[in-house]
Amino acid sequence: MATQPHSRKRVCYYYDSDIGNYYYGQGHPMKPHRIRMTHNLLLNYGLYRKMEIYRPHKATAEEMTKFHSDDYIRFLRSIRPDNMAEYNKQMQRFNVGEDCPVFDGLYEFCQLSAGGSVAAAVKLNKQASEICINWGGGLHHAKKSEASGFCYVNDIVLGILELLKYHQRVLYIDIDVHHGDGVEEAFYTTDRVMTVSFHKYGEYFPGTGDLRDIGAGKGKYYAVNIPLRDGMDDEAYESIFVPIISKVMETFQPSAVVLQCGADSLTGDRLGCFNLTVKGHGKCVEFVKKYNLPFMMVGGGGYTIRNVSRAWTYETSVALGVEIANELPYNDYFEYFGPDFKLHISPSNMANQNTPEYLEKIKTRLFENLRMLPHAPGVQVQAIPEDAINEESDNEDKVDKDERLPQKDLDKRIVPDNEFSDSEDEGEGGRRDNRSYKGRKRPRLDKTENKESEEKPKEEVKADKAPLEQENR
């Protein structure tokens, strides 16, 4: 399959402002607040003007049970922090409690995460967009009837099931430091989804993803696992990612791609052990984008949250085909990014235990497996099932031109590159752009600028501050 150079594409972005308020609990490494931080960086870089922004619908129980069991979704829907004693046996059965705690709004959090990925798939199916982004998704460990690895509902599986209504073959790529076990397990016996996971292997959660795990039945050779060692750096990662994905594209010939961009594979991650930079991580997005296939990008792991927001902001710019400055614009969470206040990060001096010989051995074995595939599998022509969600008509001709457009319609508009407005506050060149600020000392806000934060609901302000105190311990 031919690749094309870096280009501009129609990009849709899914975000709900409530998602940053959910809180797994004190000391828990998973912080949904990182999604809000990413969104705020996107605003202040001005990237929001170049893509269509949608608030995801809340996925219904019916949508979630397209993969998950009825009992499990019913349990998630009913449990609350104040009634856990009643659910003791079920909590053990569904693996909820320690790594996957019960917290306020747990079910709604799952609905938003899953809703974004399902809506993104529908948008791609309708050919209404070429790239769809849901940083609130990517929860790849969740199983059919149990929570796992901070994940409760597998939005990726639900999104892929939606894509399969229109696409014969879907490719799933996972660059999280942990093995994408939940997604692999869901499609282990089918030849319509190929799962490719690059991950740390060996006495590391979840303990799966051996080179010899290749799928079963009709799905034999359609699970591709790349087990890696500590210290993986940009150069070594590219040396294995590019040839493997190239061969997968050539052999499997997918018509849509889902990329899980877990940022715990970055250097310095609280739970990770790789040494990738933001640029090295972003090269994976850039390479997959060149194939010009319908492309869904989702979040995933990432526990040093200042670096997560850096990576996902940069990867949004790669998806848009826009270059952004290394100097971070002033934003609501500026103090997180000290002392340098830069977008890009440097690798540490940790040793890379992935020798060229080891990586060559993996490539050789995987290429042998891929040669065992017949040809790109097809499916019989059949009626296309109904879309998971019915989107409202985008026909603007029916809109009264004298009435002000609702915000959701304004968010769908993309500002042309040659259009400027004096009224824009955010982004490069906007009134809030403190690009001359060098990061030595946080600028004092005058009363007018601070008015916005004073008007925030109290619980939202609290959600903003708590992760900051933990991150800067």
Helix vs. strand class:
alpha/beta
Taking strands numbered 1, 2, ... along the chain, how are they ordered across the largest sheet?
Answer: 2-1-3-8-7-4-5-6
State mean pLDDT (0 to 100 scale). Answer: 86
Main sheet summary: 8 strands, parallel
Distance between the termini: 48 Å
The unreliable regions are 392-399, 420-426, 431-473
- Assign the CATH topology: Arginase, Chain A
How would you name the CATH homologous superfamily?
Histone deacetylase domain
CATH class label: Alpha Beta
CATH architectural category: 3-Layer(aba) Sandwich
Overall structural domain count: 1
Count of DSSP strands: 8
Morphology call: globular
* Total number of helices: 14
| Radius of gyration of CA atoms, rounded to a whole number | 22 Å
Protein name: Histone deacetylase
Pfam family, one: Hist_deacetyl
Binding site for a divalent metal cation: 176, 178, 264
Keywords: Chromatin regulator, Hydrolase, Metal-binding, Nucleus, Repressor, Transcription, Transcription regulation
